[in-house]
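One-letter codes give the sequence; backbone shape is given numerically. An example follows:

. . .
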Amino acid sequence: MEVPDPYGDQALLTSAMTTGYDAVPKQERERLRRYLEAVVAARPAPVHTTVAFNAVYFGYDLGGEGYGGSPLRLDDFPVITFGECAPVLPVGAMVCVATGSDPLYAEIVYREGAHPGVSAHGDVPAWVSGAPAGAKGLGQMESGDASRRRELLVPDLHAFGSALSLSPAQLHRLRTRRRWINGDGHVVVDVCYPSPEAARRDDLTAYVDHLVTTAREQLLSPFVPISIAELVGGTRDEDLWAGLLGLLDTVRGVLNSSEALRTWGHYAMTRTSLADCWRDTGPLGGDDLRSLSAAVEHAAIPAKRRYGLISPVTVYTAVGPRLRGFPGATELLMGVGYAAAVCRANVALADVVQRDSDQGLFENGARITLDDAFQGGGVWRSHYPGDAEPPGDPLIPAGRGWASTLPASPEPEPEPEPVSEPEAELDPVDLPLADDASLGPGELLRSDADNIAWRSPLRLAHLIDGWFPLHGDAVRDLCRSPGPCPTLCLELHHADEVLEEKEAAQDVTVELGDDSGRLTGILWPSDFFPGLMLEVRWGLGGTVIRMTTTCLQERVQIGDREISHCYDPRVLTREDAPGSDRHGDSAAGLGPRQLVMRTVRRCGLLTLDGHALLDRSVLPSAVYGRRPALPQVAALESAVAELFTERVLEPAIGSRDAWGQPHHPARDGQPTIPLIGYRPARRRVIRPWGGTEPGGEGLRGIQLVPGHLRRLRPGCSPSEVQRTAFREHCRRLGKADGWELPYGYTFVTEHTRGR
């Protein structure tokens, strides 16, 4: 069967894919799967989800030239100069490394922690396993907000074809100098994260942030097969974030669903390559993998003693350094071969644990679990006697090494006796499932010598207490003003709405701290709600600050609220839940239905477009904060059933991977978990020539195809109409002067087709 081409007659990425794997029609999944399987088979390193996305989005050529066969502009790549501390470079980042001579073009295809405390034989100090960025010793963290971590990055130096690849002599010279890459062709750097939250981001979120910020020019290049701006209908950061996460979820789902591939975390390998490795009798082949598995299994087994008790023994082994100890492995671990060897070794260990143990407990009494999926290529924990520890999923990293060095927690107070009715003052408790630190970040729109403009969502706390935060640039200007904190005139403009005079213009007070500030004493209009986006403009040194809202193109209905102005769906989901309004925020007095809705929206795993998914098994404890009584559980389950029937909530099946991350839909080979899903609003599906709903009376089976590039057959050339259409396409992407079509390509204008 012919393998599709990203620059082929039919685009591989579609608008449906921006909403995630579950929304993609089977035929579109199948086309993407055939291409990605070919990419994984063609590349020498395991293919990370972000690298697979790069292949289809930036047009990886399977003929041997990689990205060198596409018309991408190298000038769009971020230039990296490695110094004492490097910027965050997630897997998938395409970079130009400034080497002092010839530039080094590379794609980061693998990344792991490279803590200097890990020995050359793979022995890991307990506190390193599972330690967060910024950890510097037994239970000790660096001071300050920034977090630093040493990391090993594996660049693919041949991803851009022969024309942009270094010659063997040039590569040998760079390896020998060990300034930009080490002797193995890897990059070992101290990465500075702007905050602990940034260091805890998962691979996909970190890569989306990289694309939208550092690599924005590359992302919005008009020379990609089909632009994300065409797929989501704009270049607003919110749309780009949601669309990219949806595309990455689609790519990940396709990789996980392929019968020809095997995945370890986000890395995909062909099953054929794994089988060949097991049959190989040379270095790092089947014999060495069996030896590694046996060594980890017996690492904590103490030598037999004739007398006395045996103390518990715990050993932590890092896979990457351990592989270097096998004879003949040095050459095989150079370049991208290191990534392939580490992933194969982890798959082998996982297979042994799943096949030969009972949840990690082996017959010899040792318990083997994956303790850290990032440091040293994966840190495995061997503990004896293993039956003294509670069982659990051995492939979900527990970070017990770092946790064992932290101060012991105080003994918990005894639980109160269960009661038959919820207590009035009891509020739901947040679960550690959603990263709410990223909710509604302020976006700087302009900052120059005269004005500062930023955009930020209104939060529930702002409505309750009548305040609003100031951007840091405005705070710094106000701090330079002499005298006490000034009073400003706040001018509110609510698009297409008329405000009362006391709301439209009001005097507010500025409160300044060391590095933050806010406006207080604000009288918010009655129809302002949590999540409403406000654009704020402040003239430096002035006395007037202006806030405006922006109208949506069409109204949306979310629950009982009809919304006609731009909003942040994440804030709306979290902070407009039952029991929350400008008068307060409490679960007191709520019935079972409202408690379920509040808990799912407040505690569920949150997506950028406002969906929330909660593990159904934790619902009772999330509502009541302790072990509830049976009547309480029964009332909640009855409420869930009613909400499912009314389609206010929806049931879903998810799964947990080896890293403890939930997935929806469930992935093959992972334990499944039932989910409760909150879907705030369903997008209207626009159908040409009638009907706006999938089941409407309009013409059925019609698909809108966005404009995209297509490779021409030899001897063909684009028409002047297509050249003009491409220049207009460039202008929509923000290229005001327009660009010409690259040689050998034409532009397919937006059109519809029947499925």
